[in-house]
Amino acid sequence: MASAKLLLLVATSVLSCGVILADYAPMTLTIVNNCPYPVWPGIQANSGHDVLEGGGFFLPALSHRSFAAPAHPWSGRIWARTGCTGAGEQLHCATGDCGGRLQCAGLGGAAPATLAQVSLHHGNDQTSYGVSVVDGFNVGLSVTPHEGRGNCPVLACRKNLTETCPSELQLRTPAGSVVACKSGCEAFRTDELCCRNMYNSPRTCRSSKYSEFFKRECPQAFTYAHDSPSLTHECAAPRELKVIFCH
Ligand SMILES: *[C@@H]1O[C@H](CO)[C@@H](O)[C@H](O)[C@H]1NC(C)=O
């Protein structure tokens, strides 16, 4: 009886192993800093998913870091922190800060920050990805899947919006330099601009003159909570997904 059970267990694990191998090709995640200054990427997994690379690390100008993506479904967001001082448990960033530490370890970043949103290995090994400035903009970025099948375009918000940001959206350092561009929601905190409460549905959550500024500059990016779902792309089994800052 016991050995029959064991056999069954072995058979099921072999089977599920086989299924995993067949469904999910190994994938590499690469984060590139193409900016002329260092960034501290942050990675936040959606609830229940693994923390990758401690959730954050230092990335000098013109360098990259590659690591293996989880071999199972995973979703989350990647952003850049800029203007950081300190180190380790005491890292404070002018933009994208996550609780004042290097490793975000599950925490998200402070707005405004440009986001790469990714969902790996869902459905029939689809990877979906998008660029969002719903929470504002701090650094231009692009997301590029490599060697995938199907609909796998490069998506980007490339312009440096900190240069053109309307003054009421500018985030400035105490010394006065503009380091990021807030969303209308972040700047004014109204239910309407934040698509909260009665404005939290595809019908009532609308673009605003603020989101339209982002849309003009970055048509491929999500600019408000219920922006067109067609901005998310689905690519089958890419071998690598690259997020490039300042590109
Ligand atoms: C973007 O513009 C800001 C404000 O002018 C500047 O400080 C920053 O260095 C620029 N970023 C890049 C990548 O050129």
From TrEMBL:
<feature type="disulfide bond">
    <location>
        <begin position="98"/>
        <end position="104"/>
    </location>
</feature>
<dbReference type="InterPro" id="IPR037176">
    <property type="entry name" value="Osmotin/thaumatin-like_sf"/>
</dbReference>
<feature type="disulfide bond">
    <location>
        <begin position="152"/>
        <end position="235"/>
    </location>
</feature>
<feature type="disulfide bond">
    <location>
        <begin position="84"/>
        <end position="93"/>
    </location>
</feature>
<dbReference type="Pfam" id="PF00314">
    <property type="entry name" value="Thaumatin"/>
</dbReference>
<keyword id="KW-0732">Signal</keyword>
<feature type="disulfide bond">
    <location>
        <begin position="195"/>
        <end position="205"/>
    </location>
</feature>
<feature type="disulfide bond">
    <location>
        <begin position="165"/>
        <end position="181"/>
    </location>
</feature>
<dbReference type="InterPro" id="IPR001938">
    <property type="entry name" value="Thaumatin"/>
</dbReference>
<protein>
    <recommendedName>
        <fullName>Osmotin-like protein</fullName>
    </recommendedName>
</protein>
<feature type="disulfide bond">
    <location>
        <begin position="185"/>
        <end position="194"/>
    </location>
</feature>
<feature type="disulfide bond">
    <location>
        <begin position="35"/>
        <end position="246"/>
    </location>
</feature>
<keyword id="KW-1015">Disulfide bond</keyword>
<feature type="disulfide bond">
    <location>
        <begin position="157"/>
        <end position="218"/>
    </location>
</feature>
<feature type="signal peptide">
    <location>
        <begin position="1"/>
        <end position="22"/>
    </location>
</feature>
